[in-house]
Amino acid sequence: MTFLTIGHRGVMGVEPENTLRSFVRAEHEGMDVIELDLHLSKDGALVVMHDADVDRTTDGKGPISDFTLAELRELDAGQGERIPVFEEVVDAVKAPLQAEIKDTAAARALAGVLDRRDLLDRVDILSFHDEALAEIRTLLPTARTALVASRYGLDVIDRAHAVSAGMLVLNVRRLTLELVERAHAAGLRVIGWTVNTPDHLKLVRGLRLDGATTDFPEIRRAARFTA
What we know:
Blueprint: E1 4-7, H1 20-28, E2 33-40, E3 46-48, H2 69-73, H3 86-92, E4 97-101, H4 104-116, E5 123-127, H5 130-139, E6 144-149, H6 155-162, E7 167-171, H7 177-185, E8 189-193, H8 198-206, E9 211-214, H9 217-223
Parallel strand pairs: 1-2, 1-9, 2-4, 4-5, 5-6, 6-7, 7-8, 8-9
Antiparallel strand pairs: 2-3
Helix pairs in contact: 4-5
């Protein structure tokens, strides 16, 4: 299968992360897939933001869960961008998406949107949290899911199988050839993150990964010529 380059929060190395501007740029740069993060606002909207609070990426302060969607819309998410909701990203770009959920509440909200808008063929659902993926599997038995991990060992393969995930999205700093070969033998695809340098790209290609998550458009271009 083709090696995939995945735009991390759009292309966060050159645009404000998790904004429509970043997602549109990622698609324009030819990213195969666009990754984003989801939290719930105080009033239950699926807002696109990585952190649990708004401090790092906006001019506001406090937990996302303390803000209504209308209040979140008042914040500057970088270069005048506003915090989008998931449905806006779906409408703004045509590329396949990876939606990372932070908890089971977000899993239920996302499942509702994917079912209602018939998006299961377009959206992979990612999470660090096994229980969130298990919830998705219950709600959407045919959904494509991936277990994300930063600190992990070979047991991550069993964890993925336990929640019926078909893919691992793993921190490249801990990847080993043994783990990749065992994951592939177990029928799992493996994506590495975050791949932002030529050396990282050579590593993931050498390990025969199925793709790389990157902050920068030039990694997409380099990947086409790196075997």
